[in-house]
UniProtKB/TrEMBL annotation:
It catalyses: a quinone + NADH + H(+) = a quinol + NAD(+). Belongs to the NADH dehydrogenase family. GO terms for molecular function: NADH dehydrogenase (quinone) (non-electrogenic) activity. Pfam families: NDH2_C, Pyr_redox_2. This is NADH:ubiquinone reductase (non-electrogenic). It comes from the Bacteria. Keywords: FAD, Flavoprotein, NAD, Oxidoreductase, Transit peptide. The lineage of its organism: Bacteria, candidate division GN15.
Amino acid sequence: MTRTASEQVVIVGGGFGGLMAARSLRRTPVRVTLVDRRNFHLFQPLLYQVATGGLSPGDIASPLRHVLKYQKNATVLLAEVTGFDLEKRNVLLRGGERLDFDYLIVAAGVSHDYFGHDGWGRIAPGLKSVEDAIDIRTRIFLAFEKAERAVDSEEQEELLTFVVVGGGPTGVELAGALGEIARETLRHDFRRINPGDARILLVEGASRILTSYPELLSRKAQRSLERLGVTVLTNTLVTSVNERSVDIKAGDNIRSVPAQTVLWAAGVRGSGLGGILVGNGRSGMDRAGRVLVNPDLSLPDFPGVFVIGDLAVVNNPGSKPLPGVAPVAMQQGRYVARVIDRTVRRKSPPAPFRYRNYGSMATIGRAAAVADFGWLRLSGYPAWLAWLFVHLMKLVEFENRVLVFIQWAWNYVTKNRGARLITSEHRSSDR
């Protein structure tokens, strides 16, 4: 006998994990409500290209209602979650509305972590949202515009110095794109300055960049960055950030670097919803603000409540935290949907979640990337082609794939970045 869809699943967050969970429940006899304060799914791995003028926001975003329009058991709500009452099984929304649930999936993601220096956020933006990307894009291209007008050589040096903090994939991709902008995209656009004179520093506290990659690929990535004019500073920490300089420390040596554009890619912290969720039970959090969950990704003491994606870390002393990448969130979303499906159908639960790592990639610039598939390690042009193909295929909508492919092909031929617009308030006032 066919079960009626009487049980309610509420999913908080329309990112990779939340959207995958919703789509994976399409044949399960439940009602799915996906709640997000944005009306679109954002393909974050390409967000740095919006921040550097290579793509427009619409190229990497898909309206959630459009993505789920043919899934009859799914409803999308544009709303902000403000709390949870896990005992009464409901989600609190801004404005006082409550959503009842039988199963809850929290996939709220992470925000920037400035390691106790939250005041740096105003000066050194991170890259997690469309607004962040547009802000960074404005700061980058406005710096060159201001340098063109500057008459003081010291001010010009400050404006043409860019500091990227964090040598993970995001920092490497940002630094590489900045090198291309300075030496190729803007090469003939100015009359009083030479954009190629821009100084780009990538600051990493560890002994090498891309620490999650094999050392050989890490070294190749650094060489690719250096060919683009990026200076890589390893074993170096940022100790202070202000509007005109950055203090960095290498060993016992501290020096000040004049720079008006600082970009943050050094750390992340769990969404504030994680803390609200933990307050309802005896679950804990790790130092990065991620929620400790059971091996089946459920919240301790609350069966049917799951946390997935960047916000979750499995409470297992013998295991390492999983990387905060899209494949982890997607596999977790698919897994939790399976747990719910089997529970609803009165079947035995699946084995504990196990992440299958199919590889990781980072692009460094034009025709340069690194890729680690475990059994195969690539760098240079082959890795770049693999990176292009994988990222195109992972875009949610076919239309986005076509648009991004055309834009990439045009950018490759012309070395241009067609979305280098200065659109915010920064255009008319100094920071």
